[in-house]
Specification:
single chain
Length: 209
């Protein structure tokens, strides 16, 4: 049970890393300017996320291999418009919505479990600061629309198992993973010791009654 519990926390931890990585990567080209996102854009993003994500990943892969087509922006713009994202700035709107959704999903996961937060802090990473940095790149008017559609955006599966696996294979994250395993093991050991001491103290109290 303990091993499974620890494993689940590790998977969730690296899912957060993957979400933040995907969102920050796709959003790197824009910096806090208003894209004019509407409710309709968000609904179209959720409805056609698979097609939108596939096109974005296609060009992201080409970029990583230095094979980016000069017409990549036009190709993405046309695809995203066909998927229901309004023009102009369809690419920037998708980037902003992706980053905003990444913020919402990561915050939800962090708020649910203080253990994950503590493990990351022990690794020298402040996860709340990381997601706030991501949010800071989104114009406040766009973020207002994203927040308004929070429940809908939280239904989107931003990252797949393949996404997480690719993130875990990078040298930087492999190093973080090893560190996280050590931190998680130490955390659980301390929790076990604390619970054992509390049980012992309680037994002593009960014996005196």
């Amino acid at each position: 049970f303990k091993t499974k519990h620890k494993g689940n926390k590790m998977k969730k931890l690296f899912t957060i890393f993957a979400i933040l990585f995907v969102a920050s990567t796709v959003f790197a080209q824009t910096a806090n300017f208003k894209t004019g996102i509407t409710d309709s854009d968000v609904k179209a993003f959720v409805k056609n996320y698979d097609a939108i994500s596939a096109k974005a990943k296609e060009h992201a892969q080409a970029y990583s291999e230095n094979k980016l087509d000069p017409n990549a922006y036009k190709d993405m713009e046309e695809t995203f418009i066909k998927c229901g994202i309004s023009s102009p700035k369809a690419v920037e709107k998708v980037a902003a919505i992706t980053a905003g959704a990444g913020y919402l999903v990561a915050k939800k996961e962090l708020d649910k479990d203080a253990t994950k937060v503590q493990i990351m802090k022990n690794m020298g990473v402040d996860p709340y600061q990381a997601i706030e940095n991501l949010k800071a790149n989104i114009h406040k008017d766009d973020m207002q629309v994203i927040q308004k559609n929070k429940d809908l955006l939280l239904t989107v599966k931003l990252v797949t198992k393949d996404d997480v696996q690719k993130i875990r294979e990078t040298p930087e994250v492999k190093k973080l993973e090893d560190q996280a395993k050590k931190e998680a093991k130490e955390y659980l050991k301390n929790e076990f010791k604390k619970n054992a001491n509390q049980t012992k103290d309680q037994l002593k109290k009960d014996g005196k009654k």
